[in-house]
Amino acid sequence: MRSAPPRLPRRPLVAFVAASGLLGLLSAVPDTSTSIPLQTVADSTNTATVFYYTKTKNWSSTYLHYAPDGGSWTTVPGVQMESACTDWVKKTVDLGSAAGLQATFNNGSGTWDNNGGNNYALGTGTITVKDGVIAHSDPCADTGTGSGNQATVYYSTATSGWTTANIHYAPSGGSWTAAPGVGMESACTGWWKKTLDIGTATSLKAAFNNGNGVWDNNNSSDYTIPTGTTTVKDRTVTTSAADPCATEAPDTEAPTAPTKVTASATDTSVVVSWEAATDNKAVTKYQVTRTGGAKGTVVTDVGSTVYSDTGLEEKTAYTYTVKAVDAAGNTSPASAEATATTGTAAPAPAAGTPLGTDPRKDPIYFVLTARFYDGDTSNDRGGSQHTKSGNAANNDPMFRGDFKGLVNKLDYIKALGFSAVWITPVVLNRSDYDYHGYHGYDFYKVDPRLESAGATYQDLINAAHAKGMKIYQDVVYNHSSRWGAKGLYTPTVYGVRDSQWSWYYDEKNEGFEYDGLTVEPKSGKSYYNGDLWSTAEPTGNTCVNWGKPTGGKSAEGYTLYNCQWPSPTSGMFPKAYYHQCWIGNWEGEDSRSCWLHEDLADFNTESTPVQNYLIGTYNKYIDMGVDGFRIDTAVHIPRVTWNRRFLPAIYDRVTQKFGTTAAQNFYVFGEVGAFVNDKWNRGSVNHSAQFFTWKERKEYSADDETAAIEQFNYENNLGTGNQPTSTNAFLNGNSYHTPDHSQFSGMNIIDMRMHMNFSDAQNAYSNGKDSDDSVNDATYNVVYVDSHDYGPNKSSTRYSGGTDAWAENMSLMWTFRGIPTLYYGSEIEFQKGKQIDCGPTCPLASTGRAYYGDHLEGAVTASEFGKADSASGEVATTLSQPLVKHLQRLNQIRRAVPALQMGQYSTDGISGSMAFKRRYTSGSTDSFALVTVTGDATYTGIPNGTYKDAVTGDTKTVTNGTLAVSAPGKGNLRVYVLNGPGKIGTDGPYLK
């Protein structure tokens, strides 16, 4: 760890992220025969010349704050950098014997760029840092202003997604530039340009690279480029080329009229569908015109070939026509008419009631609702990043799966053996890429992109309960979208519909209300933003220099204005509702009271209006009958605030609505992101998962903000050695004892320490045991291998340890203490090794959040947990996979042995690498089990009696308190149950 201000967050100026990725056609290692070296040799004097790109920062001064590897950091703010050339500053620093440096940049007045909290790791020689991308070239070299022959080269990165480009070249008869060459300038979207002086030469040899070791050298042949203007795109060289960034001739050709228009009514909804129209360029949207009913003619823009028209009048005939529109605004003739007559309105579904049983009985299946199964294509939405992300090319809108799809496939989840489903947040979101649900905008409204007629959120809850399955709703108390929270506070930003920004700032429509689904007629967008901005300064504005140019430019070269983008330091957010700082230290107090990301406006959770807003919204979903809450980013709210306000409010509401037993079993589990292999996260108790399972130990000031500081200092000063301990997870010898929950806060936790170590089951087991005495009751821990955020060891990819390792992990999870949880698709190793999340810089189909529905096509029914009654189509193939069979039997065994669900455990008197005993006693139930995973084990000092293995049916009679079990093999296990039922289920690929 370093001593300088750690992880100071950068303040972004624009909301657009450049694409990044690697193209398969690019050579990772250049051809050495063309003088392209395999590596850049460090300067022998061990200096680093650092160039920093200023065009998107608008800083009046730039400072380099750095530490040579193994050395000390400069004094804040560091050393001032000097002007190098247009849009660049530089600084050469002496590194002594160091082989590199850690660096951050700032404007000298408290605004930092620290690479999103990771700092920049720089080597020696010439280094460029441009909008978060590190490369190696002199961006100010070779300006192309000489008097000799010139070659203007355009290079396309549209396919590769490079965020910077260099050209490494040699004029014919001349020498090659030093690798990696010279930096090219951005010409227009997807194109980079450089004009080169080549003296008397009439051509040159060239290769291109991204400055970080990825090359395009024309399959080791290099490119031959003459004088004049040349374009290079996907290995195609076009000489005497036209400027690819020149304005194209206007498109005047209209699309063809849509055909085969049909309309069908269900209750008071009509679904209209049609065949896609054709166009010389591309159809960008459709205009659906409806006539009939009291509202007269209504025109709606639609992005797909299906439109769901809801909330219509009863028993009324409606007629629809459709037109196609291209990007230039050319509109086709109207289609033929289609008519449908509505019926009577469907009654609203009754509110649900939570199942109210012990949550430890219910293994959890975790789904990203929008990526699981698409039951209704009419609510699919791609949003503003549909094309840029690459999702459009895959016909894969980010909002694809929905509640209807989840209802349709509940039997699949039940057939796997899961009786609880954890779903991502359901509230109306608002951001450029919000399918995951964590950018809440209207917390009191369910996102319409997830609902359908007959498949509302209430319908999902009720359908799950009818099958004996629970719904755990992911909830967010820490933050809203960057645009605030409707009904609490939404900031107004400066926007101007001038020639540069009219494409972004939609024309205002006073009669339109954003819901993410409905297309706003003027803009043709479902992601309309006309309600967010103003040219006139709003009443009570606190943002400084409203609407004045900052002096900087956006990535597109457009003028930037003050107050154009929400941020904590902009003055747009009143302290009564939002925090007003960036996190600087992730283990400091500010991690609980500042913004963690530019897209997540951090609620002032110590403010009464905010508390009331959040308590009110989540009361709504409690009243609908959900069975529990998974709490996102729980660590970023002080424990004292949870214990004083939010947790009591949850349990009080459940008690009021459904009674004491339901409240006792309402399952709340928090995400406390401790991504290190420590029992206590880097020594900070306030940032450790188990800390949140305990009540406060003293009284603090009545003011919540003051109390938060007092609690942080008090507990951190006490340190890790003075925290409460518990025996609630442990047997007393062979005896189960009544757990003491008197100091339980009400929040259970995701077992982050086991999660971080699941690259190896033995490591996960050992680390989990080591933390259990510091958790109030670890038998309630949620245990998973990977999730929508990380794989083990904070890996950014989905688990790819192999099928045998997956089977071993599952065997441990389903028998050790805690509640086993599986991320959707892991039952078939779905997307193993793929990057879990890359935002809008790559298509979702290439990530760990890909659409799963293709594996679920067909029909499946299940009346029992862990068994399909019938299955056909692709879902039958999915259910036949080896890990699925393994998972089904594990769920059957766990469901039949109460000790595996709710039992305390012990390893006393046991030899074996992953071997333990568990017992649960309640009333007439007394369940005692001996478990070994993969390896052999010997149990001593156990009760005498008859033990039957739930896996093989083997029976052993113990008369001397000792039982020996031979190794069952990788992924296999033995579960010897005292007076047990014997073999449960049938042999499979691992359990046999």
From TrEMBL:
Keywords: Carbohydrate metabolism, Glycosidase, Hydrolase, Metal-binding, Polysaccharide degradation, Signal
Matching Gene3D superfamilies: Glycosidases, Immunoglobulins
CDD domains per the UniProt record, alphabetical: AmyAc_bac_CMD_like_2, FN3
Ribonucleoprotein found in the keyword field: no
Domain Fibronectin type-III as annotated: residue spans: 254-345
Pfam families, sorted: Alpha-amylase, CBM_25, fn3
Bias (Polar residues) ranges: 380-394
Skewed-composition ranges (Low complexity): 333-354
Superkingdom assignment: Bacteria
Keyword DNA damage: no
Span of the signal peptide: 1-28
InterPro entries, sorted: CBM25 (IPR005085), FN3_dom (IPR003961), FN3_sf (IPR036116), GH (IPR017853), GH13_cat_dom (IPR006047), Ig-like_fold (IPR013783)
Cofactor(s) in the UniProt record: Ca(2+)
Span list, region Disordered: 333-357, 376-395
PANTHER family assigned: ALPHA-AMYLASE 1 (PTHR10357:SF215), ALPHA-AMYLASE FAMILY MEMBER (PTHR10357)
Protein name stated in the entry: Carbohydrate binding domain-containing protein
Organism: Streptomyces justiciae
